[in-house]
Structures are given as C-alpha cells and as structure tokens.
Design goal:
The complex is a heterodimer of chains A (381) and B (267). Chain A is an alpha/beta fold and 381 residues long. Chain A is 38% helix and 22% strand. Chain A is built from 13 helices and 16 strands. In chain A, strands 2, 3, 4, 5, 6, 7, 8 and 14 form an eight-stranded mixed β-sheet that branches. In chain A, strands 11-13-12-15-16 form a five-stranded mixed β-sheet, with helices on both faces. A two-stranded antiparallel sheet of chain A has the order 1-9. In chain A, strand 4, helix 4 and strand 5 form a beta-alpha-beta unit. In chain A, helix 1 runs parallel beside helix 6 and helix 3 packs parallel to helix 4. The longest helix of chain A has 18 residues. Chain A is globular, with a radius of gyration of 21 Å. The mean pLDDT of chain A is 96. Chain B is an alpha/beta fold. Chain B has a single domain, classed as Rossmann fold (3-Layer(aba) Sandwich). In chain B, 39% of the residues lie in helices and 18% in strands. Chain B is built from eleven helices and ten strands. In chain B, helix 1 packs across helix 6, helix 3 crosses helix 4 and helix 4 runs parallel beside helix 5. Chain B is globular and about 70 Å long. The mean pLDDT of chain B is 97. The chains are: A alpha/beta (381), B alpha/beta (267). Chains A and B meet through helix 3, helix 4 and strand 10 of A and strand 2, helix 2, helix 4 and helix 11 of B. Strand 10 of chain A pairs parallel with strand 2 of chain B, so a sheet runs across the interface.
Chain lengths: 381, 267
C-alpha cells in the first residue's frame, strides 16, 4: 500500500474489500470458493503472505468461519467472505462468535436465493438473514456499501466496529458492488483510523459479559482464558442451567450494541427534512435512486432520500425523521420485501410502499422508482 | 486443574483419560499447562479441558474444534495445540475436518474418547457403535458398520495414529507423551467406557465388566495384521497404526510466506 499520498485506482468492489481489510490490520483469512465472492479469497491469497498474514482455503464454510474465530482468539484480526449458501452454513459459528464476543468480519456478497438460486446474479435477499441468521437472542452489526469507494470505507469500519464492540460484524455487499469496477481514491494510510480491541492488564480475570465491552486476552498470553459459547460468567466458567447468569450474559452482549446504536448507525441523508415523497434505499439499489431524485426534482417533486449504510442495528431515528416529513415512503429492494417491514414498523402513520424486483440480477431502474413516486403525487402535479 | 468438580458420571472412562493426559504432561516435565492450548467441541470428552484445565481453552461448537485449532496452531506454533473430543464430535459431525487436518498434517494432537455412543444426549447410535449394539435410536440393534478412526487417520496422512482403551492406562500415557513431542497431525483414539448411556444397555452389569471386555478383546495391531476378517469380528485393535515425518501445515505455510516475500524483493 501507498505510504503518504492520496492515490486513485480502478478496482472492483471485491478488490477494494481486500485492500481495505489489509489496511485495517486483517492478517488472517479463511474461506471456501463461492460465486460471487471468489475474488476476495483470490486477492487475499496473493496479498496476505506479503504482509506476514495467513490465507487458508478450508474444506468448507464451517471450517472457514471456525478458523477465523480461532485466529481472532490469537489476537489477530480475521475475516472470511462468502455468499448466501456459504453464509447459511456459517450461521451456527457466527452465533458462537456473538456468544464468545469474538471480533471478526464476515463478508456476504449477496446473490439470488433461496437454495442455489442464481449464483452469478445480484440480489438483496440476505438482509434478514444477516440480522437473524443464527439462533438465540443477539444483536448484529451489518453494513451495506453502495460503491467501490464505500466498500473500502465500510470494510475498515467493519473491522473497527468488530474490535470496538468485540463482536462479529457483517459486511453485506452484493454481486453488483462486488464486480463493478470504479475509480477509487485511497487516502494516505496515516489518515485512516483503525481501532484495536481492548487488551487486559496483568491480573485481570473478567473477560466476558460486560456492556462496557470486556478486555480480550489472546491465547498464549498467560491469562488462562476459558472460551465457551455455552452460558458462562465473567470469568468464562460454564453455567448450563443458571437462569440469572444466562440472562445477565445475553442481555449484556445485546446491550453493548443496542446502547451504542447512535455510534454504529450511519446513513446518507438528502432532503429528509423537506420532501413530499421519501425513499429508503441501501446497497446497489440506491445507485438508481440518485437518478430518480434528480428526475423528480426536474418535475417539481421534492424527494427525500435516506440511504442506509448501516442496516443493523436498524437506523430508526433517520427513518423516523423522513417519515415525519414525507407523505409516503418508497422502499426499493432486490428481494420480495425485507427492509420494507422495518421501515413500516418505524414509520407508523406514513404510507410505506414496497418496490421489489428479483431475478436475473436485473437492477431496479430509476424509471421504475420514478413511476412509484408519480403514483403518489400524480394529481397534485 | 481449576478448583471445579469434573462433570462425568460415576465410573466414566473420561476420568482415566484425564488422568492419563495430565500424568503424561507431568512426566514430560511440565509444571503447568502454559505451553498448551486446548480446543474442544461438544460432548462429554469435550468437557475434559474446558474449563477444568487451568490453561487457555476454546470450547467450540459440535464438530468444529479442529478448524478452530487449525488457525491456533498456525498462529501459535510455539504452543502444543491439543484437541479433546468424542467420537460423535470428531468422526461424526466433524469427520471432514478430521480427514482434512490429517491430510494437511496440521500441527495438532487430537485425543478422541470413543465411547461408541452419543453419551451426553442419552445414548444414541454413533458412527463408532458396534454392529448390532442396542442404543436408544437402534432399539433392535445397530444396522450400520462402525468407523475405524485410527486407521482412517493413518490413511489420510496423519503423522501419528494410535488406539488404546481405558484398560491400558500405561500404554495410553506413554503414547500421549510420545505424541506431544511429535510434529504434525497426531491422533490418539481411546476406547472408553460409558456405563450410563452404553454399557448398561448392551448388557454390562458394571464398569469392571466393560474394562474386562476391553482387555480381553484387545488385539495388538501387529497381531491383527495376521488375523482374518472373521477372527477380528468384535475385537478392538490397539497400538500404533502409523508414525512418520511429513512436512507439517505450519512448516509449509511459513515456507510459502517466506517465498512470496522473496519473490516480492526480487521483482
């Protein structure tokens, strides 16, 4: 990587993800081949050895995410990348990561499901899975970039949030963002903020279950840390039946995220204060929205747009604000309606209209969104 | 050991296995477990180190101890990485990882307590259950052939593979001592009695009878080679199945990294 100056490149989203991960300090990657995430593993295999990092292609996704967890407990920033079917296989261990408070980054490059679906085609069907994929009570952090530039920024942010809150973080990209090549500007390395997990000081023994995020020792440092995803107390000692210890632990791993939602939530907001119609978008779909907004403005319709860069925890405040001002909100998604239901929950009285499209990787066009807008304000214009 | 009571049922073979391991470590001259890190999955055997050993231990999901141990072995080459697991964990749900770790010659020692049944969940049939044995899910007797894990490890590429029973504590201890000091993928299978979920269902009246069964049916591997399939029916083959020196995963990975960086400098 460049040392001191800003540089521009022409990268795909998957390439930007690798460069960002290495910049963020990622030194371990384990993965299993899957379209459309393969370029991440391939670039990692090439780049990691040069920075003393380790790349492993494992026998399946279960092993890949397992190896990532082991690496994280060795004090190493670690990541895996996959797509829907592999993401499904990883869910149990992702839950292990929440329960043991293991920082790591999981990239899910969305394709069309369910099942094998259309492996090479873009979709946004994993939004709910990224939040609710594993069993039990937990709160996930999920980020959604909409450009190659933003894949770089949010990959670094994903590592930073993982380290800060000691939790798995999911970077939810999609086939379009992963494969599109765009100009990307990389700032000097010194100007990029990276966060490292809080380490214990000698003698410390409480490593789990704190809303303030407990310090995390690494294997081999002499702390005799007992890591388990069975219910455990602050010292890591297993209690498989005690109701209070379970309650305390699980509430703490949820609250450490929920109470810091304002720090985690990030949106791009345009005219949310003053609009007739609102649009909530995320990921590749948002790229069409920009053009729609321009076109609507030409026709004298004020459109507010809130683009979710953080999908989970759900950005309730910015969505509420838009709902207060807009008469109706359109939610375009390349699925049959996922974030739509969240928007509806938060928007209360405001009419929320889904705009869904799946199949063949066909993106939602600016015209299709515009049509929905005109349906709402037709008679006034 | 932490000041906690081991969770096993009275008469469980895992007491003997725990004992054999800790004595082996002690006899090798280690005063504590600071040179070790333990990984385990889900099942009774997986509770041996976690959290009872005063050491770093990672208690993973059912079947996933070996992948977690793989990255730990790569990133902590100075530590002995020891995996404890049961037969269901290691060669049932986790079989693929077991075979691939042997193939890669990953620098880990896997100690598998084989009680021939899923003990923790109440005694269901396992991939290691003897043919015709009655379990809670084979009430009319098991209709599947059991897996020979020690042989499989040897074939798949392990640096060391051995099988003992809890009725052979001395051999087991010596084998553990030897395996700790070897490199690469090392596997020790320990046939262990589960009086609660297996023994009483297949007709053993007490633990002593089970140990007697182990002792009387154990056949050394060298002798077994000369025996026919029929003669080996119902026997437990014990001993060392393989010992060899191959490049380990860690050695190969670090050599690759060195090579990649050398290419960089030259170009």
């Amino acid at each position: 990587m460049q040392k001191t100056e800003t540089k521009t490149y022409f990268w795909s989203g998957n390439e930007a993800c690798v460069e960002a991960a290495i910049t963020a300090g990622c030194r371990f990657f384990a993965g299993y081949p899957i379209t459309p995430a393969n370029e991440i593993a391939e670039h990692m295999a090439k780049k990691l050895p040069k920075v003393n990092g380790i790349f492993m292609q494992m026998e399946d996704e279960l092993a890949s995410i397992g190896a990532v967890m082991g690496a994280s407990w060795c004090g190493v920033k670690a990541m895996t990348a996959t797509s829907g079917p592999g993401f499904s296989l990883m869910q149990e261990t992702i839950g292990w990561g929440f329960m043991t408070e293991t920082p790591c980054v999981i990239v899910d490059v969305q394709r069309l499901g369910p099942g094998t679906g259309q492996a090479t085609k873009c979709g946004q069907g994993d939004v709910m899975q990224s939040r609710w994929g594993t069993h039990g009570d937990y709160t996930a952090i999920v980020l959604s970039p909409n450009s190659v530039q933003e894949v770089f920024e949010l990959t670094i942010r994903a590592f930073n949030l993982a380290e800060k809150y000691r939790t798995p973080v999911i970077l939810l990209t999609d086939e379009t963002i992963a494969h599109v090549r765009e100009q990307i500007t990389i700032p000097p390395k010194e100007s990029i903020q990276t966060i490292d997990r809080k380490k214990p000081v000698a003698g410390e023994r409480k490593f789990f279950g704190s809303e303030e995020v407990a310090p995390m020792p690494a294997i081999g440092e002499g702390y005799n840390v007992a890591v388990t995803a069975s219910t455990h107390d602050e010292y890591g000692i297993r209690f498989t039946a005690d109701p209070l210890i379970h309650r305390r632990l699980v509430e703490s791993i949820n609250n450490k995220i929920r109470k810091h939602a304002d720090d985690i939530v990030d949106v791009e907001s345009y005219n949310a204060d003053d609009c007739q119609v609102g649009i909530i978008s995320y990921g590749c779909t948002s790229r069409s929205v920009y053009e729609t907004v321009e076109e609507a403005e030409k026709r004298g319709i004020k459109v507010g747009h809130v683009r979710l860069k953080t999908l989970w925890p759900f950005p309730e405040k910015p969505v509420k604000k838009l709902a207060k001002n807009a008469r109706k909100i359109i939610v375009p998604e390349m699925n049959l309606g996922q974030i739509f239901h969240e928007v509806k929950r938060v928007a209360c009285q405001t009419e929320v209209v889904p705009l869904n499209k799946i199949g063949g990787g066909e993106l939602i066009t600016p015209e299709e969104i515009l049509e929905k807008i005109l349906e709402g304000v037709g008679e006034n214009n | 050991m932490r000041d906690l009571k081991l969770p096993f049922c009275p008469g469980c073979g895992l007491f003997s296995l725990t004992n054999a391991f800790l004595r082996a470590v002690h006899e090798l001259g280690y005063e504590d477990l600071s040179n070790f890190v333990f990984c385990s999955g889900i099942g009774c055997s997986s509770w041996i180190p976690s959290p009872y050993f005063r050491a770093d231990s990672v208690h993973t999901l059912h079947g996933r101890s070996i992948p977690v141990a793989t990255s730990i072995a790569l990133l902590r080459p100075n530590l002995h990485v020891v995996v404890f697991g049961g037969d269901g964990d290691i060669v049932g749900i986790g079989l693929s990882h077991f075979v691939h770790a042997a193939r890669r010659n990953t620098d880990i020692l896997v100690i598998m307590g084989n009680n021939m049944v899923y003990g923790m969940t109440g005694g269901q049939v396992a991939p290691t259950t003897p043919l015709k044995a009655k379990t809670t899910t084979t009430p009319y007797g098991s209709f599947e052939h059991p897996l020979d894990a020690a042989k499989l490890a040897a074939v798949a590429g392990a640096a060391y593979s051995a099988r003992w029973t809890t009725a052979h504590p001395k051999e087991l201890r010596e084998s553990i001592k030897k395996a700790i000091n070897l490199k690469g993928f090392r596997f020790i299978e320990v046939i262990t009695q589960c009086p609660t979920a297996f023994g009483r269902r297949v007709g053993f009246k007490n633990v002593g009878e089970m140990l007697k069964w182990f002792k009387e049916n154990a056949v050394p591997v060298q002798q077994a080679e000369k025996m026919s399939q029929e003669e080996l029916e119902g026997k437990i083959i014990i001993g060392e199945f393989i010992q060899r020196r191959r490049t380990t995963l860690g050695e190969a990975v670090y050599a690759m990294i060195k090579g990649a960086q050398k290419d960089e400098k030259q170009s």
